[in-house]
Design brief:
124 residues; alpha+beta; 434 Repressor (Amino-terminal Domain); 39% helix
Length: 124
């Protein structure tokens, strides 16, 4: 990924989706870890946006959580560059819960990474 802000976008989206799916099944981080063959601290790090999961970890978690793999990255979109030599960027939907979760919005609003409400410098 190109820069720290893009990494934060990916981390926060995966973290929110994982936390929401785990809570929906009323599982503790420890129970999820045991069922997925991961340590509970790994689950905590993923939910606290401290670590980007490997592909095999995403597959394990999705299987245990009984969701499609893509739900763990729901709300992330890659915008490819317009020209060769430029960088693409990630954008994240401005929703915190998976579709169908209690309190979730049916329609997500998408913001470029530099215009996301979470990237407002006045809130740092």
């Amino acid at each position: 990924m190109g820069d720290q802000r893009e990494r934060e976008i990916v981390l926060s989206r995966v973290a929110a989706n994982l936390r929401s799916a785990r809570r929906r099944l009323d599982l503790s981080q420890e129970t999820l870890g045991i069922l997925a063959g991961l340590h509970r601290t790994e689950i905590g790090m993923l939910e606290n946006a401290e670590r980007i999961p490997r592909i095999d970890t995403i597959v394990k978690l999705a299987t245990v959580l009984e969701i499609p793999v893509d739900q763990l990255v729901d709300g992330l979109t890659w915008v490819p560059p317009e020209r060769v030599g430029e960088s693409g960027r990630f954008v994240a939907a401005a929703v915190e819960l998976l579709p169908g979760s209690p309190g979730s919005s049916a329609e997500a609003q998408h913001f470029p990474a530099d215009q996301s409400p979470q990237s407002d410098p006045s809130q740092s």
